[in-house]
Here is the input.
Amino acid sequence: MVKDFLDWFTVQKTYLLVTALGTLIAAMCAVLAWGRGWTWPRRLGHWVTRYRPRIPRATLSIFPIRRYPLMSDQRWHTALLGGQPAMQIISEWRVTNIAKEAIHIHRAHIVRPCKARTEGEVFVIDPQTNCAGDWMLAPRSTAQAMTQFFVQPPVCKEGEDFKAKIVFTDQFGNEHKTKWIVFTYY
Here is the structure.
């Protein structure tokens, strides 16, 4: 009886055994996948037909402007804000839109040093009218931008240089970080 049972398992053609085992494994995977509530065909169909917005990731190239060798365009000075002493930080930047669509710089903020974390204002200078405002950068164009921050209380004494890292954010939420920038006292 055992010999007949073992003879029944001996297959003369191995491709039949491979096909049968493959079908059995596929059926087990389908039942287990159905039991868990997902199937790879549904996930594959979703991946093929899903909406993919074309949001550009690298949109801006930002560099500080240094027009004169002895005077920096990144500077700070003491100011009064609500009767309290504060640091007014002013800087100018060369901003290049490297995307294929118009880019708007929504905000700028200081991230380092932690004591000086604050939001600032960004003004893009229109190259045709030379007016500063809340302009969009045309595709593949370059413009100047000005930033202004008020840090209260001051983190530097008068006459000292102030070092900071600034982050610019565009309308897509992309953050463009600068390296350490030295702001001279004027």
User: Anything to note?
Assistant: The first strand starts at residue 60 and ends at 64. Residues 60-185 form a domain with the Immunoglobulin-like fold (CATH 2.60.40).
